């Protein structure tokens, strides 16, 4: 399924994707969860991150907070890549754990599913360094009244 084009021209769409990557990098929470967002095209997001021992729960695997953060971010940015004027808000997120994450590199991939105006649905999955799925989730995102242009870190080039 091809995602809709964002509400900008092709040059503006590219600038919007780079600005969203800057917005992600500027978020203070990413100091706790080091990661890098890549937006190659509207409707798709990829986050590279490392699972560290500091993310572990008592049974020596990644705590659910790491799963949720990366899945929510990947799905959110896949959806917000289609909206160039407003920040989206997560209104619901359903998460399924499929495999414990251990120390090492991982990737969260987000995919736009539906919605073009007010409500967006996107899915995400986490793959470990061996390409095995560790979790998947589906989020619902609502267009807010928060202008992207007013957010620190969002600066179209």
From TrEMBL:
Coiled coil: none annotated. It comes from the Bacteria. The keyword Methyltransferase does not apply. Gene3D superfamilies: Hotdog Thioesterase. Keywords: Hydrolase. One of its GO terms (molecular function) is acyl-CoA hydrolase activity. Pfam families: 4HBT. Residues 62-135 form the Thioesterase domain. This is Uncharacterized protein (TIGR00369 family). It comes from Sphingomicrobium lutaoense.
